[in-house]
Amino acid sequence: MKILPLHLLFTLVFCVFLSFQANTKVVAPQSLILHCPSDRYISCTEDLYNLSRFGNATYTIGNYTYTAGMPVVTYHLNSCNAGYITRTWNVEDSYWNWHSCTQTIYVSSGNNNNFQVNWPPDYEVEGCNPNVKPHQLPAPYNSPTWSGDECRMIGKSYTDMVFTVNNGCKKIMRMWKLIDWCNNNGFGTQWTHTQIIKIINEERPTFDCPADITIKALNCKNARLEVPSLVVGATSCGGAAVISNNSPFADNKGANISGVYPIGTTKVTYTIQYGCGSRAFCTRNVVVQDGSKPSAYCLHSLATALMPIDTNQDGTPDDGMVEIWAKDLDRGSKSLCNYNPLRFSFSTDPTDMSKTFTCDEVGKNEILIYITDSKGGQSACMVNIDIQNNSANIPDCTRKVDVPVDTLNISHSGKIVDMFSQKMEDVSLSLTFNKPNQTITISQDSVEIIKRDSFYNASGYLLYFFKREWVVTTTSDTVTEFVRWNTKSDSTGSFVFKGEKRNDGAYSLTASFGIANKNQIDGKDVEWLTKYLLGEINSVTPYQLLAADVDGNKTVDINDLNVLISYVTNNISNLPVSPYIFVNKKDVFEPATSVFNFDFTKTIRHAGFFTNYSDHEIIGIKVGNITNATGLTDENDITQNRSGLATFKVYPNPSFDQLNIEISEKSVFNLKNIQGDMILQNIILEPGIHNLWSGNLSDLPTGIYVYSIQNQGVTLSGKWIKL
Fold this sequence. Notes:
By secondary structure, the chain is mainly beta. The protein has six domains: 32-108, Immunoglobulin-like (Sandwich), CATH 2.60.40; 116-200, Immunoglobulin-like (Sandwich), CATH 2.60.40; 213-290, Immunoglobulin-like (Sandwich); 301-399, Sandwich (Immunoglobulin-like), CATH 2.60.40; 403-436 and 482-631, Dockerin domain (Type 1 dockerin domain, Orthogonal Bundle), CATH 1.10.1330; 638-722, Sandwich (Immunoglobulin-like). It is built from five helices and 44 strands. The longest helix has 18 residues, at 6-23. The radius of gyration is 55 Å and the shape is elongated.
């Protein structure tokens, strides 16, 4: 096919166009008119984005109106939403001419009275030092919120002022500030609010309210009281409570109520203030009894003769007697507090007012005279009464013979063994009577004085004369002494106390054995204590617990193990407690841990020392000697075997800074703390002994850890103690 040249093709097209024009009727084009909506003035509080409500542009061509389409919107607003917005429409006519119009919407930033602020309410939280930063607090306590800010640019800040009353009571004054930077006065409009945040700890401190106390007044009106201060424990937040008292007689108003109290009962209340004004109370009575006694003054000595008595009416006296009244031996006794009348007696019984002496009392007799006042106060003085058989000449009138002391002797005995039933020799034992002996010592001083007197004679003259008198001063003193008998156990562990029977025989028996050495305290005791702490020993005796408490804090824990190991390995020369504890075998401790509630300073308490007693049984417990076995442990190995699985050993246990893991197959070794947190993990690829040395273990805290060895889908576990 043959193609025409380009110039011939152009000529052909042009001829066709001219032919078309010649056959078409020419019509004049109509013009396009664009109509734009008028400018508007609005406030910044109005909707600035839905602008079609302000009208849209249209255009007309002849009698027809058409929409001008979507305008081009341009915002000329500042940060406060003030300025103007333009909406521009562009339309192209059929002659490719563009028509354009613009609507301007002016936006004013006038005052916005709809602005509202919701300030965070006050907040209260418990704890020692909780995080109260705004982002840590829940809504609405964390931050102010606001609305109606269309014409505003709001910034916020806060500052805290912290006021500390004590560790359990703090107050934070949080000053919130809002600023509207659209207010062009250089600083912006500001709003402020103070939020109060209270941090309180209402944990009640621990304390023991002391028992009532009774004292005696010896001066007829009051007595000095000296007591320890009330001790209140700290709370978990630390710090001390504030203690006060309401006693009108205390030296101060704090924790100590010592002072001078009058006779009677004074109710004293301690107030313990803690936290943010919380209070606890403790009340005790101070009872002051009138303990005054009369001052006893007696004759120093008195000699009196027996009157003969013929009891068988044979004309010959065969006995004698004389009755003496206690009041006749008084030489001016008196009550300093005027508790009269006084009564005089020969015993503590005020009605024992007279005493009959016979031939049995011939000779000198030291007799106590008791003076009792109207309230029952009592004192005594000594009178030497010499009963004579002079003028009566009573035949065979002699003093009775005293019964030998040996006939009144009784004995108390028993045995002492250790907790493994081994006899204990050379243990020192003391028997102390609870009521002391009181010895009254009376002394007299005689002074001769010369008195002058006068009288008028019959002639009316005043005459003087002098006479001599003896003034006798009697002084009594009471000496209090506790009676203590001592003995030692023999080679069989037996002991015996011998002495005189006592009417008031309550007593306490104590034992001591001062020999401190490491005999029988060795690695076996360390092994036992380790297994106990690991929970591998379920049944223990109270005696074992006492022996295991080597630090003396009345509980068995990891610290006891540390001390025991240091002692066995000669890092310390002595245990921090007495080497022996002695227990009455008849005491029952149920459960075993209740043994720590007992006071073993007095091994045995008994109600009376009236008859022979041979059934005392005492157990001597050597602190640290927990088990009767002796010798060293085999590296404290813990070996576990499972049929068809790996055999492994973990040792030494306990240890300070290393572990040896002896394993027969490839395994995974995990070590966790008692809370379950992973400490380390070793994948053991080869059988043999693998070491975890100090680089991994020395920095671990002292305590109990759980290890596990995983092999063939089975996990075997145990516990390891880090010293």
